[in-house]
Amino acid sequence: MEVRHSYGKLKNASMADKITRMNYDIHIGAIAGLPGKILAFLASLIAASLPITGFLIWRGRKKKKASQE
Fold it and tell me: I want to staple 37 with a disulfide (CB 3.0 to 4.6 A). Which of 5, 24, 29, 30 is the partner?
């Protein structure tokens, strides 16, 4: 049976096409099941906290410099 979407049949797909098909699953961690989803969540939590902690360190350094003068 012929498929009607742009990817074609999986057995005829190249490695690049297979990775493109798996893009969403890799992005949300579904490729590795529940542990992959937990790992993706923790990685996104750490990535989201980096700008906040950087700002707090920057602000604390500025306050420290002003109080020493």
Answer: 29
pTM: 0.58
The DSSP annotation for 6-68 comes to TT--GGG--HHHHHHHTHHHHHHTGGGHHHHHHHHHHHHHHHHHHHHHHHHHHHHHHHHHHHH
Alpha carbons 56 and 65: distance in angstroms, whole number:
14
- End-to-end Cα separation, the chain, in angstroms: 79
